[in-house]
């Protein structure tokens, strides 16, 4: 009977932790030890045991508040780990793809085909840079601001899923080759590429788990005065914290997102045309110009499509305003 109040509190705390997708065993064990020790200390002063337990529980805090705070800390640590893991894996995939292209035998130069990996790595780079900027400001803090936490998780998921999808498309293209190939002659190179591609899939699962934790946290009510900042404004603040001179540039670009997207697409077009021109020398003037322009347009279109589909998830565009009745 003396344990009933603490036991009821621990049951409630267990339910709250389940809702928040937070690990329960460690916190429940620590909470039980702390509550019992606190109750023993209060009871040693002559307080009735039942009253001592009641005071110990009151000092510890409401179960919902304790569970939310713990879930926030777990989500913050999980997001940092997922970000580091995603950056490492995506970088490793990029290195493996370059290594593959440089060392693969001539008959294998058409795999990877290039386009899936190239676009996937570009998407991953943008997502990881934005996530890194948001995490950098909180590198010494236990808790990451909830909005930034959600956007970091979004960025990590987008980066890892994009690269895993790119690797999957590369595999699909390899399996649908028009003729059989002596794969055994390049077994070591293929194995390195396969390991890097497989790691991106594992990282994608880790990222999705982190996103699930942050969404569970975000779906719960916060205390008064805990309003979240606006996503675009928070990005400007994060860029300014990392590089103060860039604040005016960041503010200008985020205030005119359509113009910024168009400028980025135009820049991508120019870069791709230049790369194609330098690579081919444009020996066939007409064909070379058309091919370079087509590649540039493809890259520019990818920039626009990426912006339209991913900008809100990455906090580059303001969310749609819900209509009020």
Describe the structure.
The chain has 325 residues and is an all-alpha fold. The chain has three domains: 4-61, no CATH class; 72-229, Butyryl-CoA Dehydrogenase, subunit A, domain 3 (Up-down Bundle); 256-325, no CATH class. Helix content is 75%, strand content 0%. The chain is built from eleven helices and no strands. The longest helix has 41 residues, at 63-103. The model has no long low-confidence stretch (mean pLDDT 82).
Helix content: over 70%
What multimeric state do the chains show? Answer: single chain
The CATH topology label of the largest domain is: Butyryl-CoA Dehydrogenase, subunit A, domain 3
Query: Regions with pLDDT < 50 over 5+ consecutive residues?
Result: none
- Overall pLDDT: 82
Q: DSSP strand (E) fraction?
A: under 5%
Structural class: mainly alpha
Sketch the major β-sheet. Answer: none
CATH class of the largest domain: Mainly Alpha
| CATH architecture level-2 label of the largest domain | Up-down Bundle
Write out key terms for the chains shown.
Butyryl-CoA Dehydrogenase, subunit A, domain 3; 0% strand; 325 residues; mainly alpha
């Amino acid at each position: 009977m003396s344990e009933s109040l603490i036991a009821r509190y621990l049951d409630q705390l267990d339910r709250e932790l389940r809702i928040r997708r937070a690990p329960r065993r460690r916190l429940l064990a620590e909470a039980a030890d702390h509550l019992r020790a606190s109750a023993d200390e209060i009871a040693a002063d002559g307080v009735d045991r039942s009253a001592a337990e009641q005071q110990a529980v009151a000092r510890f805090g409401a179960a919902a508040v304790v569970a939310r705070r713990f879930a926030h800390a777990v989500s913050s640590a999980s997001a940092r780990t997922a970000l580091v893991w995603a950056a490492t894996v995506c970088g490793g995939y990029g290195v493996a793809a370059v290594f593959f292209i440089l060392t693969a035998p001539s008959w294998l130069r058409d795999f990877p085909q290039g386009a899936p990996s190239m676009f996937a790595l570009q998407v991953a780079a943008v997502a990881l840079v934005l996530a890194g900027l948001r995490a950098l400001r909180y590198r010494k803090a236990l808790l990451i601001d909830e909005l930034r936490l959600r956007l970091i998780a979004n960025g990590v998921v987008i980066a890892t899923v994009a690269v895993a999808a790119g690797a999957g498309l590369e595999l699909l293209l390899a399996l649908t080759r028009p003729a059989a190939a002596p794969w055994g002659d390049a077994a070591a190179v293929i194995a390195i590429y396969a390991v890097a591609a497989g790691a991106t899939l594992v990282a994608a699962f880790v990222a999705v788990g982190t996103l699930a934790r942050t969404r569970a946290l975000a779906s719960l009510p916060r205390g008064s005065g805990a309003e979240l900042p606006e996503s675009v404004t928070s990005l400007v603040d994060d860029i300014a914290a990392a590089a103060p001179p860039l604040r005016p540039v960041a503010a200008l670009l985020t205030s005119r997102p359509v113009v910024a997207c168009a400028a980025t697409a135009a820049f991508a077009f120019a870069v791709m045309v230049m790369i194609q021109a330098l690579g081919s020398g444009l020996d066939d003037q007409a064909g070379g110009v058309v091919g370079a322009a087509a590649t540039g347009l493809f890259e520019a279109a990818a920039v626009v499509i990426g912006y339209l589909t991913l900008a809100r998830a990455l906090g580059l565009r303001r969310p749609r305003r819900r209509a009020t009745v």
